[in-house]
Amino acid sequence: MEPYEICVSRELKNLGHRNAAALIKKAAAAALRAEGVEAAIISVMLTDDAGIRRVNRDFRGVDRATDVLSFPLNELVPGAFEPDGCEIDPATGAVMLGDMMISLPRCEAQGEEFGHGFDREIRYLTVHSVLHLLGYDHLDEGPTKRQMRAREKTIMGDMD
Fold this sequence. Notes:
Layout lengths: L3 E7 L9 H15 L5 E8 L1 H12 L7 E5 L22 E9 H11 L2 H17 L9 H17 L1
Parallel strand pairs: 1-2, 2-4
Antiparallel strand pairs: 3-4
C-alpha cells in the first residue's frame, strides 16, 4: 500500500493540464518523505482564479486570487514532525494533514513568468503547500521564512 494518500480533484472541468494530479502526487510524496512523514492523507482541489479567490475571501478575508492555499488540520512545529496529537485516519493509521487548493491558470501563468514552465511550478506550489501543512510559515522575513525557503530548495533539488 502507498503510504501517502494524495486525493486530487477538480472543481471545474476543462482546466487542462491532465498531468497535474501525477505531478502533485509525486511532489507531495517527496516533501512528506523529506520531512519524515511515514503515512499521510492530503486532499487537493484544483480550481481557477475565481474559485481560489472565493475561498481566499471566505476563509482568510483576502478578496483576491492567489496561487495556492493551505488548510492544515494540525498545529505542527516546522522541521520536527511528530504524529502524536495529529488527526489520525482510523482506517489506515495515516496522519490527516489537511487540504490544499491550487489555481491551475495562476500556476501556468507563473510557470511562464518565471521561465521554468507549468510542471516545475506545480511541483513547487505543492511542496510549498505541504510544508505549510507541516507547520512551516513565511509571514515575516525572519528565520521561519528562511527555514521554509531552505526546505523548499532542498526538496525541489532532490526532485530535479
